[in-house]
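Lab notebook page, bench 4
Experiment: in silico fold of construct C2
Operator: M.H.
Input chain length: 510 residues
Purpose: comparison with the prior construct
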Amino acid sequence: MTKQGIPMQNALQNAAFNGLFIFEMANNHQGSVAHGRRIIDAMADIASRHGIRGAVKFQYRDLDTFIHPDYRERDDVAHIPRFLSTRLTDDDFRTLIEHVRGSGLVPVVTPFDEASVQKCLDHGVEIIKIASCSATDWPLLEAVASTGKPVIASTGGVPVHDIDKLVSFFQHRSVRFALMHCVSIYPTPNDCLQMSFLAKMKSRYPGVPIGYSGHEDPDNREVVVAAIAKGADLLERHVGVATDTITLNKYSMNPQQTDAWVAAALRARAICGDGGPKQVTEEERESLRSLERGVYARRPIRAGQPIEPGDVFFAMPRQPGQLTSGEFGRYRATFHASRDYAPGEALTERASDDPVLDVREALHDAKGMLYEAQIKIGETDQVELSHHYGMERFREVGAVFVHVVNREYCKKLGVMLPGQRHPVHRHQRKEETFQLLWGDLSVQRDGEVFDLQPGDKLVIERGMPHAFWSRNGGIFEEISTTDVRGDSLYEDAAINRLDPMQRKTFLESW
């Protein structure tokens, strides 16, 4: 059965997230249990005085497997020296987790590898957090989803179509989840915050709690006001405690700054952004690349051999041009070794074309547009992909149609992806009317071009040549007389020579 829309998470499910203030400890514990306790006590005092529901978040990495053996002694690779110098034992983390819980706060953990996901379970962690750099790490996401724990996922540097995939991934596994708007620049200047995108996320993913995870200057309280004004359901910041020997980084707040930040959030009023599309900067991409896991050969792999999961392992750092763990997890059925690999060597394979994945990618984009427009379709509605020149050109030429009813009258929903066009054709038996519901749509009818705005209608009579396209993506309703297979005659004779089933794919479930 076809299903559309994000299942609304009920109030009980959302209770894990709504109103939560997350105090990110990260490595500000400096590898010291005593210092970690000091930070927890300071956050507990702030949470108590303001009457908020607070959480303290840690980062778990199984450093013996997370870092490639050849790089553990290197001090010239980003992040590795810091990770190693602030290592805590399993018992140390258990002690801190229990101290968080005993202080009336919620323990939250970001695991960066599968072994650390198991440690979250062993420690009874209430909520698991997905870092922005792991938002497309499908092996890790599978492990997290299998825990049954509530999940919060950050989206810094993650393009919108990848956020759509992440939402679909959690939906299909019945995961209780929240998303965090985030910018992966440390610290983040005001002109890079894109706070209006938080509101777009709330519109695109109705029913999903949306929060803000910030990296701005610790004295900047305007940003949290903007986040609340844009509808943030939960908030997160890096925190620490400075001492004579410990200096905080440029995006972590001390207790005084944290107190002022919480106070600002609780009294927040509207601060608006520009409402533009999300921009992913090269600086953000580089920041994420520095934390991505690459795919390395676990054993000798010969040229031409299918690459199975047991043949490889995932570790940072990722080498230039190397296959990532996320790519392998998503495309692994398409990989064959193009050359011999020695154990420990970085795999530089690229995924081959896969028509099934082309269809799935297009559907994810179409579903994302329907999410944002808050348009839901029925469970029995059939989905049609029109691909007049094959799926390889679908994003250029084609459309997605949702068949709602076809009797003496017919109703369809048409979804045009950004930049997509539907070629010139006419109907001998069918008269139809288009009404634009969301986005933009241009229609050429009998040689005249009409640029429709949401709500505009256009009648296309029998025999009228017409074509349509969208610049930024559009959703329209098509109301017509009965739709008859084979009634579309195209200006391009090559399309007419195709059987309708050769230029259409029908789905009963997506």
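Observations: Confidence is low (pLDDT under 50) at residues 1-8, 269-275. The longest strand covers residues 53-60.
Next step: discuss at group meeting.
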